[in-house]
Structure formats: C-alpha cells, structure tokens
Amino acid sequence: MKCCIVTLGCQMNQSDSERIRSVIEGMGYAMTKNEEEADLIGVVACSVRQKAIDKVYAKIHRWNRWKNDRPLITFVSGCILPADERKFLKLFDLVFRMNELPELPSMLQQCGIATEYSLRHPLEGMERQDERTDFWLVDPAYSSAFEAYVPIQNGCDKFCTYCAVPYTRGREVSRASADILAEVQRLVDRGVKSITLLGQNVNSYGLDKKGKEISFAELLCRVGEIGNASDKDFWVYFTSPHPRDMTRDVIEAVAGYDCLAKQIHLPIQSGDEEVLRRMNRNHSMEAYLKIVSDIRELLPTATLFTDIIVGFSGETEAQFAHTAALMEKVEFNMAYIAKYSPRAGARSAKWEDDVSPQEKSERLARLSEILKRTSLAHNQAMVGKAFRVLLDGKDRRMEGALTGRTEGKLPIRVLDASEELIGTFQEVEVTSAAELSLTGRLVK
Ligand code: 5AD
Ligand code: SF4
After folding, report:
1. DSSP string spanning 49-89?
2. In a mutational test of the pocket of ligand 1, which residue from 10, 48, 158 has the highest number of ligand atoms less than 8 Å from its CB?
3. CATH classification for the domain delimited by 386-442, as one of 3.40.50.2300, 2.40.50.140, 3.40.50.720, 3.40.50.300
4. Phi/psi at 234 (nearest 5 deg)?
5. CATH no. of 134-380
6. For a pocket test of ligand 1, which of 307, 315, 332, 343 has the largest count of ligand atoms closer than 8 A to its C-beta?
7. How much is the pLDDT for 118?
8. What residue ranges line ligand 1, CB within 6 angstroms?
9. Could you give phi then psi for residue 70, rounded to 5 degrees?
C-alpha cells in the first residue's frame, strides 16, 4: 500500500513532512510521488499565500472525487487557519496538528485503514516530556543525504499584524536543546554537509523556558563546539531570526565558529517607521541598521538576505520610497519580496487592502530592480576568486553542469562537473556573474 504526501510552503513544513513520512513508513506504507496510485494521501498545508490555500481546496475536491472509484484515506496537517480548519474537518478524513503526530497510527486506524499495518506507537519506550514538543522525538525520514533541517522551535508570539502564523501554529515553544544538539551530532556523524536550524523566530529560542533553557546564542555556540570537535566539514544556517531579538551575542557566536555559515537572513518587511509600527514589528529602522552594521563589522564576508512586503495596508508612495532607499543602502544579496495580501484571522485583515494590485506589482518590480543591481555588483566582485561550494544537484538547463551554493547561499552553476560530486564540497573559481547567480569551474 502506498502513501503520497504533498508538502506546500516553507522549510518548516518540509521538516514536519519528514517526520510525518517517518511515522507512516513505520506503519508499513511505501511512499510515492504519484497521487493517483496512493491509498493514503495527505497535504502539509501553508496559509501564507492565498494561492497555497486554494491549492489545498483544489486537491481535496479532486481526491474526494476519486473516492467514488477506489478506497482512499485523506489527511491534512501543517499551517491551517481556524476558519479553514472548520471546513477541512468536513472535507478530509483526518485533520491533525503536529503535536498529535505520535497518535497518527491510531487516528488512521479510526479512519479505517487495513489491519495489516503496524499500529505501534512511534514513541513507544521513549521518555516523553511535553505533549507540545514530543513529536520532535520522531526520527525524521530526511529527504536529502547531505542537507537537513532541524526544527528548534515552533509557533510565534510576535503577532505581526499581517501574519497568520500565530493563529496557525500557536504560541512559541522551544525544543529541548539536548535533543537539538543530539540531532545535529547525528547528522554531522552521518556526513550531512548543510544543516539549517528552523523556527518562526529562531532567536527567541529559550525565552519561553527562561532559566530552564539556554539562549539562542548559547545554542549556536554549542553547535559550533560540535563542529570544532568533529573532523567533518559542514555548514550550519538558521532561519529566520527576528530583528527585535537579534542581540550582538548571536552575531558574535556566528563569528566565533567555522561551521556556523556566514549568511544571515534577517526579515525587514518595510523600510518605513510608520509601516513597521503598523505591522507591529516592534523595532525601529535605526535598530535594524545597527544590526546590519554589527554584521558587517563582525562578519565581513557574510551575505545578507531579507523578506519584504510591498503594498501593506495604508502604505503610501512616500513610505514605499523609504523601503526602496533602505534596499539601496543595505545592498541585500537576496530579498524575498511579496505583495501584501490579507490573511483571515490576522489583525490587518480588518484594515482596508487599499494599495491596488497594479501598484503592488509596480512596487515589487522597482524593488526587484534594486536587488538585481546591488546583488550583481556584489557577484561581479567575486569573479576570478575561488570559493568553497556545496554541489547540490544537476543543472537542469545545462548538460554536464551541476548546481551548488556558496557558504553565503549564493546559487552557482559549476561547469564540467560530474554527478558523483553531488553532495560534496568543492573549490570553485567564479568565472562570471549574473544578477542573483554565479557561474564557475572546479579548481583542479
Ligand atoms: N502578505 C504578504 N506577505 C506575507 N508574508 C507573511 N504574511 C504575509 C501577507 N499577509 C511574508 C513575510 C514573511 C514571509 C514568510 O512571508 O515577508 O517574512
Ligand atoms: Fe509571522 Fe511576525 Fe511571527 Fe514571523 S515574527 S511568524 S512574520 S507573526
């Protein structure tokens, strides 16, 4: 019998999906990518974009039609808004939250799966600590042999006014640092080359367990120590931190250890004080720029990525111009720029979505232009120099070439490189630069 899991959205969903897969495989299912041949089919949903929500509805309506012709069990998990959850309960056989994952076999049994499956509890024999975090004790079925996500925290307490996450994933809860470090150690021992610590707000790690848990900076240092004690090479990333909790000791920790990759993804969302205030971001532009200057000082080689929303409710042309000016000033290597769209449940959904779609598109295009220009200048300065690259796949658009990423996560096409090198670090000389990408060849 086969199971297909469709994963939408961010890396956190991808990571959750790896644990769901592990439980389902443990029951005896084989995985398939083909929805049509699955007996059990599920989706890990995302509520950040309306498109992703629409996709879940399109899928379940289709799957429910298939039920006329064959037995099929459907489930949904992931980021679900309360209003959608009520509808999903009628459409899917099973709706569960990640903290309920250990009960998945028995929940599926109640949905009527065949009796030959193992219904053994996935955490049988393990010491359970906290029902909000026990699901992390499930050993994930990692989807790559050389890149892995390690969740360190779930949920969010920040309540940015545009964002659905506090309503879909609930309040912030930190995973036990001993478990995080044990998982990192296992991955390092297995030879994994790129590890990403995940959370909605990684740098508020531990704040929900004050006095009982270490801080995010301390967690980074302990991961750094794993690197120092190991003869293996690997890069550790984290995403995403919130500017409000981005203390200097976090940046110092990254500077202090070779295995902590010199790349920072620091969402700014807007470059205007008033818009930041209405977004409830709880930090000033000055504070953000101070962090950027600390990064430039302590991590001179680091790349800087960000997230930006254009056309937030009430954003005037003058306020938008401040975001454009910020982008010129900071010279991000990468920016994920989104057009604002109201999320049911989030506070700003009650405010007028008064920037027209054309205006949003135009603002997005203007920021993309700035990004391309500043990232190109940065990439051009790399031409002629050699960098360490993690080769991660075949280049789909060029025969004989591989794709990879620098430590700063800049995408690079590596010419004349053979497939056996996928999943290894190689020295690569950059031969040419484009907007948002590089080309290079192996240093022999
Ligand atoms: N509209 C547009 N973009 C959004 N994001 C989150 N909520 C919204 C929304 N309602 C973006 C933010 C966040 C990223 C994950 O998604 O930039 O950092
Ligand atoms: Fe959403 Fe803001 Fe929390 Fe990020 S910090 S998950 S944008 S509420």
Report:
1. SHHHHHHHHHHHHHHHHHTTTS--EEEEEES--HHHHHHHH
2. 48
3. 2.40.50.140
4. -160, 160
5. 3.80.30.20
6. 307
7. 82
8. 48, 162-163, 267, 269, 307, 309, 338, 340-341, 343
9. -155, 160
Burial of 248 (0-12, 13-18, 19+ CB in 10 A): middle
pLDDT digits (tens, 9 = 90+) for 18-53: 999 999 999 999 999 999 999 999 999 999 888 899
For residue 13, which ligand has an atom nearest its CA? Answer: 1
What is the domain partition of the chain in residue ranges? 2-110, 134-380, 386-442
Residue 302 CA to residue 287 CA, distance in Å, equals 19
Distances (CA, A) of 421 to 138, 146, 313, 388, 415: 31, 12, 48, 13, 12
pTM score: 0.95
CA angle 261, 265, 271 (to 5 degrees): 150
User: In this structure, what token pair is assigned to residue 190?
Assistant: 């297995």
Q: Do the domains at 2-110 and 386-442 have one common CATH topology?
A: no
Q: What is the pLDDT of residues 355-404, one digit of tens each?
A: 999 999 999 999 999 999 999 999 999 999 999 999 999 999 999 999 99
Residue 183 tokens read as 């998982």
Least confident span in 128-137, 152-161, 268-277, 285-294: 128-137
Report CA(367)–ligand 2 centroid distance (Å): 22
Best residue among 160, 161, 270 to mutate for probing ligand 2's pocket (most ligand atoms within 8 Å of CB) is 160
Report phi then psi at 164, rounded to 5: -90, -15
CA distances from 440 to 23, 261, 339, 373, 430 (A): 41, 21, 34, 20, 4
Tokens coding 296: 């430039």
The sheet with strand 94-95 has its strands ordered as 30-31, 2-7, 40-45, 73-78, 94-95
* Residue 206: both structure tokens together: 């531990």
Amino acid code (one letter) for 41: I
Q: Alpha-carbon distance 16 to 20, whole Å? A: 6
Superfamily the domain 2-110 falls into: Methylthiotransferase, N-terminal domain (3.40.50.12160)
- For residue 254, CA distances in Å to 92, 166, 191 come to 44, 28, 21
